[in-house]
Design brief:
The chain has 14 helices and twelve strands. It has about 375 residues and is an alpha/beta fold. The protein folds into two domains: about 130 residues, Aspartate Aminotransferase, domain 1 (Alpha-Beta Complex), CATH 3.90.1150.10; about 240 residues, Aspartate Aminotransferase, domain 2 (3-Layer(aba) Sandwich). Strands 2-8-7-6-5-3-4 form a seven-stranded mixed β-sheet, with helices on both faces. Strand 5, helix 6 and strand 6 form a beta-alpha-beta unit. The mean pLDDT is about 95. Bound molecules: pyridoxal-5'-phosphate. Pyridoxal-5'-phosphate binds next to helix 3.
C-alpha cells in the first residue's frame, strides 16, 4: 500500500535537490569552516552563501542577521535567553497561550523561578486579537513572544500590530515563524521584530538545522558559548551539510512562493476540507474562518478519539496527526484547542491534516475517502 503523507507540519520530506546539495559536504568537502586551508575556506564560503539564501527567503536586510542553530527549539530558547539577559530587572513576559512547547516549556520554567507569565488565549474560532495581545505589553515586560502561525490550526497571527506596539514600548519581540517560513512570503526587515525562529525540516530541508534571525546583534547574548562561531552568537562547529541542504530547500521554497504555490496549495486544502465537510456529519474545521497558512486543516469529529482516528488512518496508508507531534507522544489533549475554549473531550477529537507542495489532488481525494470511512467505523463502535 502506498503512503499518503498528510503530516507536513510535523516534518517534510527532504527535497531531492537539497539532499544532493548536502552529500559532497559529508565526503570530499568535509572541511571545518574555521580552518584556514582550502577545504576550510570552501566550507566557509558555502556557509556564507547559505546564510544569504536564508536571509533572502525571509526578507532580512543582511545575511549577518542569520544565526544557524540546531532547529526551531534551539532558536526559540536562544531568543528567550537573549531577551531576558537584556532586561534582567524586568520580570514580566507576555506570550500567546497557543505557542509551541519550545516557547511554553521555557515559560513554565521561568514562572517557577519567579517571572510573571501572561498567556493570552485566542477566541473559540481561533482568532488571536493582535490589539488585545499588544494591550498586555508595556515597558515592564522583558519579552513578548508570538508565533506567526500556529502549528496545529494554521491560524496566522497579527505579528505586524504586535511588533509596532513592542517597539513603542521598548519591549523585545520574539516570533516563532517555524510554520510560516517557506509557505508564505515574509518581509521581516519591514517590521520591528527582534528575533525570529526558523526550522529547515518544515520546509523540505534536513532535520537538526535551523536559524535565528537577530535584528540587532549588538544586544544579543549567546545561548551557546565556545569557539566563537556565528560571530560569537552561537558556538560550535557549523553543521555544514545541514546548512547547505537548508539553503537549497530555502531557494526552492522561495521559487515556489514566487510562482504562486501558496495560492494553489490553499485551493487544494480547501478542496480537502469541502470534501470532508460534505461526507462527514457532526464535524467542524477548527479556526476555519480565520486567516490560516495555506497547508493546514484541523478537524473536530464528534464522538471520535483523535488518536484512534490517526491509528486507523495509518492502517489505510494515510499519515496524519491528532495535534502537534510533540503533544501526540504525551497523549494529552491539544493545549491549543483547550486555549480556544474547547473542553477536553472536544480537544481530544481532533485531526490535523497538513499538506505540502508535494500533495496532489489524488492524495486529497484518497484522504477524504479514508477519513469518511475511518470516522464512521469508529462511530459505529460507540462513543469515544
Ligand atoms: N515551533 C513550532 C511552531 C513548531 O511547529 C516546531 C516543530 O514542530 C518547533 C518550534 C520546533 O522546531 P524543531 O523541531 O526544529 O526543533
Amino acid at each position: 500500500m502506498s503512503i499518503c503523507y498528510f503530516d507536513n507540519n510535523a516534518t517534510t520530506r527532504v527535497a531531492p535537490e537539497a539532499l544532493a546539495a548536502m552529500l559532497p559536504w559529508f565526503s570530499e568537502s568535509f572541511g571545518n569552516p574555521s580552518s584556514l586551508h582550502t577545504l576550510g575556506e570552501s566550507a566557509a564560503d558555502a556557509v556564507a552563501a547559505a546564510r544569504a539564501s536564508i536571509a533572502r527567503l525571509i526578507g532580512a536586510h543582511s545575511p549577518e542577521q542569520i544565526v544557524f542553530t540546531s532547529g526551531g527549539t534551539e532558536s526559540d530558547n536562544a531568543a528567550i535567553r537573549a531577551a531576558l539577559a537584556r532586561f534582567p530587572n524586568r520580570r514580566r513576559i507576555v506570550v500567546s497561550a497557543v505557542e509551541h512547547e519550545a516557547v511554553l516549556a521555557p515559560m513554565a520554567a521561568l514562572e517557577a523561578s519567579g517571572y510573571e507569565i501572561i498567556r493570552v488565549a485566542p477566541t473559540r474560532d481561533g482568532h488571536l486579537d493582535g490589539a488585545g495581545f499588544a494591550a498586555r505589553i508595556d515597558e515592564r515586560c522583558a519579552l513578548a513572544a508570538l508565533m506567526w502561525a500556529n502549528n496545529e490550526t494554521g491560524a496566522v497571527h497579527d505579528v505586524a500590530a504586535v511588533a509596532l506596539h513592542c517597539e513603542q514600548q521598548g519591549v523585545p519581540l520574539h516570533v516563532d515563524a517555524v510554520q510560516v517560513v517557506g509557505k508564505h512570503a515574509l518581509g521581516v526587515s519591514t517590521l520591528p521584530i527582534d528575533t525570529l525562529a526558523i526550522s529547515a525540516h518544515k520546509l523540505h530541508g534536513p532535520k537538526g538545522i535551523g536559524a535565528l534571525y537577530v535584528r540587532d546583534s549588538a544586544s544579543f547574548e549567546p545561548f551557546l558559548r565556545g569557539g566563537g562561531q556565528e560571530r560569537e552568537r552561537r558556538a560550535g562547529t557549523e553543521n555544514v551539510p545541514g546548512i547547505v541542504g537548508f539553503a537549497r530547500a530555502a531557494e526552492l521554497a522561495a521559487r515556489w512562493i514566487a510562482d504562486g504555490g501558496p495560492r494553489s496549495l490553499a485551493r487544494l486544502r480547501d478542496s480537502l476540507e469541502s470534501r470532508i465537510v460534505e461526507r462527514v456529519p457532526h464535524m467542524r474545521v477548527h479556526a476555519g474562518a480565520v486567516e490560516r497558512t495555506c497547508n493546514t486543516s484541523n478537524f473536530g469529529f464528534d464522538g471520535v478519539s483523535g488518536e484512534a482516528l490517526v491509528m486507523l488512518l495509518s492502517e489505510y496508508g494515510i499519515c496524519a496527526s491528532a495535534g502537534s507531534a510533540c503533544a501526540s507522544s504525551r497523549h494529552a489533549p491539544s493545549h491549543v484547542l483547550l486555549a480556544m475554549g474547547l473542553d477536553e473531550r472536544a480537544a481530544s477529537s481532533s485531526l490535523r491534516l497538513s499538506l505540502s507542495r508535494e500533495t496532489t489532488e489524488a492524495d486529497v481525494a484518497r484522504a477524504a475517502e479514508a477519513v469518511e470511512s475511518a470516522v464512521s467505523s469508529l462511530r459505529a463502535l460507540g462513543p469515544a
